[in-house]
Design a protein that fits this description.
- With 436 residues, the protein is α+β, with helices and mostly antiparallel strands.
- The chain folds into 3 domains: 109 residues, Alpha-Beta Plaits (2-Layer Sandwich); 95 residues, Roll (Chitinase A, domain 3); 176 residues, Trigger factor, C-terminal domain (Trigger factor, domain 2, Orthogonal Bundle).
- Helices cover 49% and strands 19% of the residues.
- The protein contains 12 helices and 11 strands.
- Strands 6, 7, 8, 9 and 10 form a 5-stranded antiparallel β-sheet that branches. A 4-stranded antiparallel β-sheet has the order 1-2-4-3.
- A hairpin with a 6-residue loop joins strand 3 and strand 4.
- Helix 1 packs across helix 2 and helix 3 packs across helix 6.
- It is elongated and about 95 Å long.
- The two termini are 48 Å apart.
């Protein structure tokens, strides 16, 4: 087998492979002989069909199968021979496939860059130290009371936390649009159920009042018929209702599923939930810090094929359906995020390889059980379904390995404790997720 490799651009490679004709022809002949002993054909006894008859009927199909398999086998052999690490699937272009002549094909692909992870001693991350206080518990309990409020009709003007019941009908340039009208629609002011301009227009309104409210839809909406356009809504306020909060007592605790222990048991349950939220938020904050710093400390040449694949994945996540070549303006909107993801993926994979990090099966089983428990199904049935979903299992394995890499990184870098309140932690977590 002869192999030659040329660099096309950057990490791009074009590999030409020549395979001696004997390797293909011998395998074709072997399969035809095997087939002649098994195939059934009219006019011949089973196992007695001449090879030349089998070749006439099945030769083309057998040859096609052999060519495909030989290409796959020799592609892997050629990569090993040339010490190449491809970054994705190749584009295979046959050059010679004729009977009796050497097989020749070209494989075009990107290779992985050479990576030496560095700069870990320059990384410093903040580890939040957060205590759950009685005030945090009080805030959650107050939100729970508001969520379970009853509403009583009032004749005063509407204000934040009131529920207004409205009819509305909206038009754009005098024309209806999808979702433009409703009757007896309940709306809690200040809850963000409708656009801010709409809610602001209802502040101070009274039952029986008719209003005109304008709202400009964002330019980036996926629905082009309304994106960037201004809708005019005719609104009738039918009722204004003020909240009546339930007492924080044992009956309220029972409404929330706490059958024993009353308010104190409810507070302990809330504390447990907040502690779990805190621990998850601290972990995510640490993970984000250390991975972003890892990417900043290491410059890599990125395989274009991997970046392109990540761009397509991001477009699918955003709901885009169009295929084909992206306009440059649209590509640039995804390219930075896609490149960052590819870069981190390469760095994480290199740490897995260089540090010999093996999948923690016990940790994976813990995550599997947690996923099964949160599914709402019978735990054993849910666990079995998840375990049989190959794509989900591969994703879970990758997630667990990544968490193990984060653990290793946190042992290598400098950490500094930073005291935060629970609200500060959760608000900064929301901001970090939005920026990410």
């Amino acid at each position: 087998m002869q192999v030659s490799v040329e660099t096309t651009e950057g990490l791009g490679r074009r590999m030409t492979v020549q395979v001696p004709a004997e390797r293909v022809e011998q395998e074709v002949e072997r399969r035809l002989k095997d087939l002649s002993g098994r195939v059934k054909m009219d006019g011949f006894r089973p196992g007695k069909v001449p090879v030349k008859v089998v070749r006439k009927q099945y030769g083309a199909q057998v040859r096609s199968e052999v060519l495909s398999e030989v290409v796959q086998q020799t592609y892997s052999e050629a990569l090993e021979q040339e010490s190449l690490r491809p970054a994705g699937n190749p584009h295979i272009e046959p050059k010679r496939t004729g009977e009796g002549e050497d097989l020749e094909y070209q494989a075009t692909f990107d290779v992985l860059p050479e990576i030496e992870v560095q700069g870990l001693d320059q990384i410093q991350v903040e580890r939040p130290q957060v205590e759950i206080t009685d005030a945090d518990l009080d805030n959650v309990l107050e939100r729970l009371r508001k969520q379970h409020a009853d509403y009583q009709e009032t004749d005063r003007a509407a204000q934040d936390e009131d529920r207004v019941v409205i009819d509305f009908h909206g038009t754009i340039d005098g024309e209806d649009f999808t979702g433009n009208a409703a009757e007896d629609a309940p709306l809690i002011l200040g809850a963000g159920q409708l656009p801010e301009a709409f809610e602001q227009g209802l502040q101070g309104a009274r039952a029986g009042q008719e209003l005109t409210v304008e709202h400009k839809f964002p330019d980036e909406l996926a629905e082009p018929s309304i994106a960037g356009k201004t809708a005019v809504f005719q609104v009738t306020v039918k009722r204004v209702e003020e909240p009546q909060l339930p007492e924080l007592d044992d009956d309220f605790a029972a409404r929330l599923g706490i059958q024993e222990g009353g308010v104190e048991a409810l507070r302990e349950a809330v504390r447990g939930n907040l502690e779990r939220e805190r621990d998850q938020a601290v972990r995510q904050r640490l993970k984000r810090q250390v991975l972003e710093a890892l990417a900043d400390q290491n410059e890599l040449e990125l395989p274009k094929s991997l970046v392109d694949a990540e761009i397509q994945a991001l477009r699918q996540q955003s709901g885009a359906t169009a295929e084909g070549e992206l306009p440059e303006s649209e590509r640039s909107a995804y390219e930075e995020v896609a490149g960052r993801r590819v870069k981190l993926g390469l760095l994480v994979n290199e740490l897995v390889r260089s540090q010999g990090i093996q999948l923690d099966r016990e940790r994976m089983m813990t995550q599997l059980r947690e996923m099964a428990a949160s599914s709402g199904q019978d735990p054993s049935e849910a666990l079995q379904q998840i375990a049989q979903d190959r794509q989900m299992m591969q994703g879970l394995e990758a997630s667990v390995i990544e968490e193990q890499v984060v653990d290793w990184l946190l042992e290598q870098v400098q950490t500094e404790d930073k005291t935060l309140s629970f609200d500060e932690l959760m608000n900064s977590e929301d901001g970090d997720q939005a920026s990410a």
